[in-house]
Amino acid sequence: MNAPTQSLNVSLGARSYPIYVGAKLLGSSVAAVLQQALPNAGEQIVIISNATVAEHYLKTLTDGLQAEGVARANIFHALMPDGESYKSLAIYGEIMDLLVKHRLNRDCTIIALGGGVVGDMAGFVAATWQRGVPFIQIPTTLLAQVDSSVGGKTAVNHPGGKNLIGAFHQPSAVVIDIDTLRSLPERELKAGLAEVIKYGVMADSHFFAWLELNMAKLLERQPDALEHAITRSCEIKADIVAADEHENGIRALLNLGHTFGHAIEAATQYKTWLHGEAVAAGMVMAARLALQLGYIEKNHANRIETLIKNAGLPIRPPKNISKQRWLELMARDKKVKQGKLRFILPTGPGRANIFSNISNEALTRLIDTL
Ligand SMILES: NC(=O)c1ccc[n+]([C@@H]2O[C@H](COP(=O)([O-])OP(=O)(O)OC[C@H]3O[C@@H](n4cnc5c(N)ncnc54)[C@H](O)[C@@H]3O)[C@@H](O)[C@H]2O)c1
Ligand SMILES: [Zn+2]
């Protein structure tokens, strides 16, 4: 049994790990990856997933592990209900109860099988069970494949805010099986594309141009196009994480479109807009603000907007947010430093920068043009 060819690596010294991107990886390949990444792991494995994803993929994964003799009879399943509201301390507690009940020990391995909700929960469980055990990410949404499974941010929500309780805990490997995207609802696919577009806008003008040419193929889920887009996105994220693991500097660039996006999510009570949709409209707002302030050319702002539109994503925020409410919502975003709003704005094709000097007047002018 050989591990599949590694697609890329997240370089973090002793905490470095491989990312595999390809088709048909969910079966026995995961067993090989596990043995390679964690040769000294014990025999206990806990697969954390949810009912929606489990129905499609849990059996393939479990059979693949068992066929290769990994964790012979010691694979436990912890299924959480499907939905962001279950990324909670209550569900975290239930999973911990299960680990206690089955007497999971310190050399167990956690596997996250699912989207970002499952990945964030499983990662936080792995970060805290017995002060930290290894875990493998098997992301099954496009958003999780290009974003949340890479970089080691893990968290659960608190009624007072999203992701308030968490830890940095890097996975030992990330296995991205693009076949899992076949069952992903169309709207979730498009929401993931928003983060893919983000990487092109902020870090790679060639990739941006490639996306302009290949958006239709991505929407049709052509495997080669998906594999390229996911690999390039992960490379960009991996490089940034390697340079700034704990977000003290350039990792903040990954928040392009997110200050506006978070405001849209909050204004709509996290109900009607998916995160990626809010980020899409947020990126258009960031591009328009950059244009207004003279940081980018009109042509570039237009290209960003057109690409987002061609991905089937919203390019305008909801109409019913008042100017006052916008300012309040953005002031609440945790990216505020010393009273000044911090924005990530594009500064040219494949480039973005952090600006902490954006005035309320500039924002008001932007909001007036929406
Ligand atoms: N840790 C990080 O760095 C980071 C980064 C970005 C987002 N996040 C977190 O990620 C979460 C959002 O993740 P998401 O967008 O993946 O949402 P999600 O996990 O809720 O998944 C979206 C929906 O798709 C379903 N699904 C998942 N895979 C499927 C598949 N292959 N086929 C069919 N259905 C499938 C899920 O059950 C769910 O209903 C948020 O909680 C966010 O805070 C974390
Ligand atoms: Zn995001």
UniProtKB/TrEMBL annotation:
Keywords linked to the UniProt accession: Amino-acid biosynthesis, Aromatic amino acid biosynthesis, Cobalt, Cytoplasm, Lyase, Metal-binding, NAD, Nucleotide-binding, Zinc
A Pfam family assignment: DHQS_C
Single Gene Ontology MF annotation: 3-dehydroquinate synthase activity
Record-annotated 3-dehydroquinate synthase N-terminal domain positions: 79-190
Subcellular location as annotated: Cytoplasm
E.C. number: 4.2.3.4
Catalyzed reactions: 7-phospho-2-dehydro-3-deoxy-D-arabino-heptonate = 3-dehydroquinate + phosphate
Main localisation: cytoplasm
Cofactor(s) listed in the protein's UniProt record: Co(2+); Zn(2+); NAD(+)
KW Transmembrane (keyword) present: no
Pathway: Metabolic intermediate biosynthesis; chorismate biosynthesis; chorismate from D-erythrose 4-phosphate and phosphoenolpyruvate: step 2/7
Function (record text): Catalyzes the conversion of 3-deoxy-D-arabino-heptulosonate 7-phosphate (DAHP) to dehydroquinate (DHQ).
NCBIfam families: aroB
Protein's UniProt name: 3-dehydroquinate synthase
Organism this protein belongs to: Aliidiomarina iranensis
